[in-house]
Amino acid sequence: MSQTLSKLISDQWIKTPWKDYLKITETPNFEQAKFYYYQGQFRVEMSPLGNRHARDYSIINTAINLYAILTN
User: Fold this and answer.
1) If we measure between CA atoms, which residue out of 14, 65, 66 comes closest to residue 40?
2) Most buried among 6, 23, 29, 42, by the most CB within 10 A?
3) Residues with Cβ < 8 Å from 34, sequence gap 6 or more?
4) Segments forming the whole domain that contains residue 26
């Protein structure tokens, strides 16, 4: 179990037993994560949160606004 947590990589399938998978899903560090388990492998997907994520969307919103202003 500890070996699996130390090597945990998001967005990649990792082979692990069901019992270890359940322990990982209960870890407080992964409250916002999405978990998947299929044929003895699990996957963790972390959602992109924070300032960097907000900045990415603000660039898109600014581009759309500029396009709307210039086309009117």
Assistant:
1) 14
2) 42
3) 44, 45, 47
4) 2-71
Cα dihedral angle (32, 2, 38, 17), rounded to 10 degrees? -140
Side chain identity, residue 17: P
- Residue 15: enclosing H or E segment and its boundaries? strand 14-15
The tokens for 26 are 């209960």
Give residues with Cβ within 8 angstroms of 68, minimum separation 6.
none
Number of domains in the chain: 1
pLDDT at 72 over 80: no
Measured distance CA(40)–CA(62) in Å, rounded: 44
**Reported pTM:** 0.52
Integer CA distances (angstroms), 39 to 17, 63, 65, 71, in order: 10, 43, 46, 52
- The model's pLDDT over 28-53, given as tens digits with 9 standing for 90+, comes to 877 778 899 999 999 988 776 666 66
